[in-house]
Amino acid sequence: MPSSFSEARKTVEFRAVYRKNKPSDKSVLQRLCTWNKRRVTNMMLNTFPFYRIMRKYQWRTDLLADIVCGITVGIMQFPSGMAYAMLAELPPVVGLYVSFFPVLIYFFFGTSRHCAIGTAAVVGLLVGSVMARFYTVTAAVAGGALNTSLDANDTIVDTGVSSTGVTDEFKIGIAMSLAFLVGVVQIIMGVCRLGFVTTYMSDPLIAGFTTGVAIHVGTSQIKHLLGLKLPRTDGNFQVIYTWKYIFLTIHKTNFAPVIISAICIVVLYLVKAQVNQRFKAKLKVPIPIEIVVVVLGTVASHFGKFHEKYHVVVVGNIPSGFPVPSVPTFHGVDIYFTEIIVIAIISFAQSVSLAAIMAKRNKYTVDSNQELIAYGVSNVFSSFFSCFPCAASVSGSSVQESAGGKTQVASLFSAGLVMIVILVLGQLFTALPNCVLSAIIVVAIRTLVLQLLELPKVWKTSKYDCFIWMVTFLITTLVHVDFGLLIGNVFSFFTVVLRTQVGKPTHLAKVSDEGVFRDPKYYVKTTVHNTIKVIGYHFPIYYANGELFTSEVYRLATIKPEALKKHIRRASMASMTSSNSLASMNSQEVSASYASLNRSYSVIEVEHAFPIIDSMHVYPMVFKYPLSHIILDLSGVSFVDTVGCKVVKNLISEYAAVDVKVWMANVSDDIWNIFEELDIVPAFKDSIFLTIEDAFNAACEEVGNLKVNGKQDEVKTISGKILDVQL
Prior knowledge:
Blueprint: H1 11-18, H2 28-33, H3 37-47, H4 50-55, H5 59-87, H6 92-98, H7 101-109, E1 116-118, H8 121-132, H9 137-141, H10 143-149, H11 168-191, H12 203-226, H13 238-248, H14 255-276, H15 289-304, H16 306-310, H17 337-362, H18 368-382, E2 391-393, H19 394-402, H20 409-425, H21 434-444, H22 446-449, H23 455-461, H24 463-479, H25 481-502, E3 506-511, E4 517-518, E5 526-527, E6 532-536, H26 546-557, H27 561-583, H28 587-597, E7 604-606, E8 621-623, E9 629-633, H29 642-657, E10 661-665, H30 669-677, H31 680-684, E11 688-689, H32 692-708, H33 718-723
Parallel strand pairs: 6-9, 7-8, 9-10, 10-11
Antiparallel strand pairs: 1-2, 3-4, 3-5, 3-6
Subcellular location: Membrane
GO biological process, one term: transmembrane transport
Organism: Dreissena polymorpha
């Protein structure tokens, strides 16, 4: 090997022997234009994944499990669909449509075997915020006058006009347009392979956002639980204004809905949390307490005449049969364009994360890009049938998995049960109190609100994650859902940049008998070399942290080249001044003065520190343990930009001026390619080693050669080096 240290492997030599030539990959255009039978077949199978699933379907065992599971999920989808439709400011029957039409389409295009597609609390709330944009100013502000003009026992569907002055037909048209456009956005994202976009939404961000949304959802249901008529608030600070209106009208509370809601909440909580959850291992199928509460509430309301006697607001007329297909109106798209993007991303993020969890538990994989297409096509198709955007239901998916469902065949049976309700049984639930549906929603979001209890654990794990959680939660809750997601993402990106900026290099020492280098503060039996500094860095080197990286290397090396140059320059100037003053004295005094100046004991020895300059007594500056090498471990550096390359070049040059060599080790191929392009490899190829061990051994060998040559006892005077440098 051409290197003077034959045993130390340098990266350039290693690459010359083992590195392959860069493979000639086909261009994107060539790959797109290359068609064959196999590629067409794979494309069709990827587009319609149900074929692969059904090809391995075990009809004797899987069919019975899917039937039982599908009926169970359908029983749950019926009440939750009506409840979340009410959350979206739409007639309850629309929730039944969302629990039916998208499910049929997802069966053909979806890759998840356990996701139950339908209504979701987050999507319902976002759709409701869109509806609030179209409420009349009079209805939104003059809440008192509106409460006087509308009787407390008015139903929602009978009059065709909601308490906000907007007809149900108009709101359904907005919901259809929203579903269509959300579907188009998701299809475009899927075709462009943007399924990775959810990776930028960290778990703390999603947890803080969903908890804030749960606060919004719970707040929006208070009026139903207390029997109050409140104006729907839109814009920023919704939660604050809603609670303001609640306290202003609390004296008008109807105690009949309060009692009904309390009973329903207690029953739902006891069965779901204390029975279904506690005895989950013993129960093959969880008790469908939601449908039990809905049936009992409807029966009690019908025979007790809650609507007539106690002014309890009920669901009202539920039209039988499927809606007539119609084209979305696209009215006022400019008003809610931002919500289209937000709903498309949020609904997909919730659904695909749920699908990934289910797939991991059951040992199969899901394609996030195909999932985007599946949700998009489902939304576009269902938009022609009076539906609002769909998503995977957390409770429904959990039941579909725990009940033993094998494939999406179970969703066909759940859709069949919902279809029966739409066609035949819908009219039986006209007396269902709205407060019962609100109780179902409140209990369903309980787990989201309880995420607040995880904050202490998040704080102990990562302060940054805790701040992301809190910022997202507070903005979502106090300001607005849209701003919460936007500012949460921006703050999350800011913390990533901040982590790379404040990340500091660490001093590494060799662990005895292991051949590895670790921080001696945390490891025992480490050996620190007196003249060789090994520095590790586990962050990118780029424009935002280049200056900090340089200053930290100076700190760990205990020698700052520029400071050392300035010190010696001042010492030289002081020496010249001293010499001039000595020249004015008599020759005897001058000789004595120079003799005292050149005495051996006048040499200052410092251990990596700078002495205070005395203009009257200037001594040569030497180091008791001279620093000879700095080895940078770049194994943890993910990327380097042009500024980072300049930083590396400057470090090597500056330390070379003070007779200190800067070497690099563990340079990845990506970093190597950047170094080649920016002329670091051609200029400093002998300073780049394959591993830290190679660089350390080469440095030790070089220091050892100095000892063998008898130079170790010589005083190493840095001033002689520096005076030759152009300062």
